[in-house]
């Protein structure tokens, strides 16, 4: 008998509630693996006959690759494979509970049913995701509050600035908005791995290790026309300045709309935020991590070399660098390939820095392996270990002779204040001690030596081993830069250079000072200021020298990262050189958000944003961008008239919240003098 097309009731609301997928806005069933879902269908001739169900995914489904399963109705849920248990039946409809295995391939499935000898009839499609709420899943996370934060939360805070001055800005991950799930699935189908061998690629999609690595490659555009194109030049023509984005939704939608052309432009936090969105969307618990004074050790010797000329200018020589901060991801899953102690948080990094296995991908590197110096374990533990542990070497380089002289080395500089957002609160949590033992402790040095030994570096130059000439050449003076006054764009920058004579005889010192605007990666962009002084320090004397860099001097030169590096190279007569340096990150002026009245579901509420021009010239080309999941659809862009000196603009707009609970509104304000002033406000929406 030819089967009539059955009609299916997917029980979308009930299944979504059970499977923690209610936040997706989809007409398609979205469920998590290793857990039962219920469907009812009619149109099979005689439901009491033996029904056989068929689920299949990917281009060439087969039982061998676990992308096809056939199963009939049984009385109990199968421990191993797919199973169906009959819930109830009436004259023309049957209600079935279907369960998938804990290690099922994730993605979009086609479901059909066959009754008796008739050919299979399609019931439709559904999407299967990872299940951190289920104890059999590789991504199982026992703490429910952590599941809420790392899978279901659409708002995040990303930390930036530098280790002396940490700041944070909001981000709208938006993993449940509109078409994001479909875009995430299409990212998988556009990877190099899929293009080379679609059948094998799909069969590996049960494994969070595999997907994490594939997605760390696909989120950057290198190799595979992935989602975001990186740009660290300080010039962003033909695209958006990386610091102007406020959420992942706009980026992922643009990638799809353009026919999958890489979106311009990203820097580390953009790659990390987009990867967070994709992994949370697929059900893998994920967070962003910021490492301050982060080493990019290009040659894998656990050292970063920085070069300076006699004037104190930082030279672009060698591929190593130290970034003021770097943002990567941690995802939570088991490491059956390494053993139980290596499970838990795994580092993934989608920023294209170095190739791994021939393409720009990084991780998963077990955080435990990083802390223990197990640099020989998969994947990319050496690179991440260096990011948080490398030793810094500062050299004086003479370009005429090619001679380089070590000024000093430091083993405690790299990997400071490693930060992430707290669970359920808008606060910073320091996770440095999860990456390494305390700086300066014997244990930390032992782990560093263990890592060097594993990499075959133990005979090479060890910057921390005392050597005769270094003992003889102790510096005669010490120096530091102190900040005097506020660090704000629009205000003069006031610093003090503090020099101290450590010896009991007088010292004459020639000091060459420079200030450069830089990117957050320490790359120099424009020289702002230079000066030189000659000073005499009496025995054991400490002297302070005030430095003032006026706003008009740096205003044109500043990058949108708002970072300035000041250096003083001190030439001590008959002594060794001393390098004093400091990275300074300026704060933008403040912007204020007020919600006028109570925020209720499906009711209009007015929001007011106020900005005061802090400088004594007019600012123009003012634009306000607003976004926030469940508060407004897409991004609201408002143009604001020019503001005279000290004038305040007040802009009002309306929101219609669509869901109750604590929601976050993100605001980004730009004008010709200030780029991307960001703030966010928690809005408590009631029913």
TrEMBL record:
UniProt cofactor note: Binds 1 Ca(2+) ion per subunit.
Catalytic activity: L-glutaminyl-[protein] + L-lysyl-[protein] = [protein]-L-lysyl-N(6)-5-L-glutamyl-[protein] + NH4(+)
One Pfam family, short name: Transglut_N
Record's signal peptide: none
UniProt cofactor(s): Ca(2+)
Keyword annotations of the record: Acyltransferase, Calcium, Metal-binding, Transferase
Coiled-coil residue spans: none
Claim: Transcription is one of the keywords in the record: no
Residues that coordinate or bind Ca(2+): 389, 391, 439, 444
SMART domains: TGc
Molecular-function GO terms, alphabetical: metal ion binding; protein-glutamine gamma-glutamyltransferase activity
InterPro entries given in the database record: Ig-like_fold, Ig_E-set, Papain-like_cys_pep_sf, Transglutaminase, Transglutaminase-like, Transglutaminase-like_sf, Transglutaminase_animal, Transglutaminase_AS
Transmembrane portions of the chain: none
Superkingdom per UniProt: Eukaryota
Active site: 268, 326, 349
Family recorded in the similarity comment: Belongs to the transglutaminase superfamily. Transglutaminase family.
Protein name per its UniProtKB record: protein-glutamine gamma-glutamyltransferase
Organism: Sinosuthora webbiana
Gene that this polypeptide is encoded by: Tgm3
């Amino acid at each position: 008998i030819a089967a009539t097309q059955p009609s299916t009731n997917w029980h979308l609301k009930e299944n979504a509630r059970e499977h923690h997928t209610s936040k997706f806005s989809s007409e398609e069933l979205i469920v998590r693996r290793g857990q039962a879902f219920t469907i009812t269908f009619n149109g099979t001739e005689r439901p009491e006959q033996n029904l056989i169900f068929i689920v299949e995914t990917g281009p060439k489904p087969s039982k061998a690759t676990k992308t096809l399963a056939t199963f009939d109705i049984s009385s109990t849920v199968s421990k191993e494979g797919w199973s169906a248990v009959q819930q109830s039946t009436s004259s023309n409809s049957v209600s079935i509970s279907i369960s998938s295995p804990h290690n099922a391939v994730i993605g979009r499935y086609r479901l059909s049913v066959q009754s008796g000898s008739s050919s299979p009839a399609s019931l439709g499609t559904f999407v299967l995701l990872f299940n951190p709420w289920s104890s059999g899943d590789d991504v199982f996370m026992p703490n429910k509050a952590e599941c809420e934060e790392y899978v279901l939360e659409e708002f995040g805070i990303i930390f930036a600035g530098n280790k002396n001055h940490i700041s944070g800005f909001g981000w709208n991950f938006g993993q449940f908005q509109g078409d994001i799930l479909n875009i995430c699935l299409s990212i998988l189908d556009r990877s190099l791995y899929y293009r080379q061998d679609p059948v094998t690629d799909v069969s590996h999609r049960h494994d969070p290790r595999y997907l994490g690595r594939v997605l760390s490659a696909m989120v950057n555009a290198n190799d595979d026309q992935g989602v975001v194109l990186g740009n660290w030049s300080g010039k962003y023509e033909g695209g958006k300045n990386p610091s102007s984005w406020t959420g992942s939704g706009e980026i992922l939608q643009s990638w799809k709309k353009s026919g999958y052309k890489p979106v311009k432009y990203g820097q580390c936090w953009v790659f990390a935020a987009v990867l967070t969105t994709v992994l949370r969307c697929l059900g893998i618990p994920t967070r962003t991590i910021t490492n301050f004074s982060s080493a990019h050790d290009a040659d894998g010797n656990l050292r970063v070399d920085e070069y300076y000329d006699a004037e104190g200018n930082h030279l672009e020589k060698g591929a190593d660098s130290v970034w003021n901060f770097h943002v990567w991801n941690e995802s939570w899953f088991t490491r059956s390939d390494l053993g139980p102690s290596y499970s838990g948080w795994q580092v993934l990094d989608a920023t294209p820095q170095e190739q791994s296995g021939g393409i720009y991908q990084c991780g998963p590197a077990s955080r435990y392996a990083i802390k223990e110096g197990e640099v020989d374990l998969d994947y990319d533990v050496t690179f991440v270990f260096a990011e948080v542990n490398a030793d810094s070497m500062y050299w004086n380089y003479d370009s005429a002779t090619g001679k380089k002289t070590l000024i000093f080395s430091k083993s405690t500089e790299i990997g400071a204040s490693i930060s992430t957002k707290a669970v359920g609160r808008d606060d910073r949590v320091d996770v440095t001690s999860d990456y390494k033992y305390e700086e300066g402790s014997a244990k930390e040095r032992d782990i560093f030596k263990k890592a060097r030994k594993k990499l075959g570096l133990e005979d090479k130059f060890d910057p921390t081993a005392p050597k005769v000439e270094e003992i003889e050449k102790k510096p005669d003076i010490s120096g530091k830069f102190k900040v005097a006054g506020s660090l704000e764009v629009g205000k003069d920058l006031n610093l003090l250079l503090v020099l101290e004579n450590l010896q009991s005889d007088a010292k004459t010192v020639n000091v060459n000072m420079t200030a450069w605007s830089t990117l957050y990666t320490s790359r120099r962009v424009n020289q702002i200021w230079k000066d030189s002084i000659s000073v005499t320090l009496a025995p054991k004397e400490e002297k302070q020298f005030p430095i003032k860099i006026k706003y008009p001097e740096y205003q044109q030169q500043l990058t949108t990262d708002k970072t300035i590096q000041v250096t003083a190279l001190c030439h001590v007569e008959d002594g060794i050189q001393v390098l004093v340096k400091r990275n300074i990150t300026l704060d933008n002026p403040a912007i204020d958000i007020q919600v006028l009245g109570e925020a209720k579901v499906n009711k209009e509420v007015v929001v007011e944003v106020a900005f005061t021009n802090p400088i004594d010239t007019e600012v123009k080309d003012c634009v306000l961008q607003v976004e926030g999941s469940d508060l407004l659809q897409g991004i609201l862009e408002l143009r604001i008239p020019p503001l005279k000196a000290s004038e305040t603009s007040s802009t009002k707009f309306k929101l219609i919240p669509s869901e109750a609970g604590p929601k976050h509104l993100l605001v980004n304000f730009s004008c010709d003098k200030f780029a991307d002033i960001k703030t966010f406000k928690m809005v408590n929406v009631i029913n």
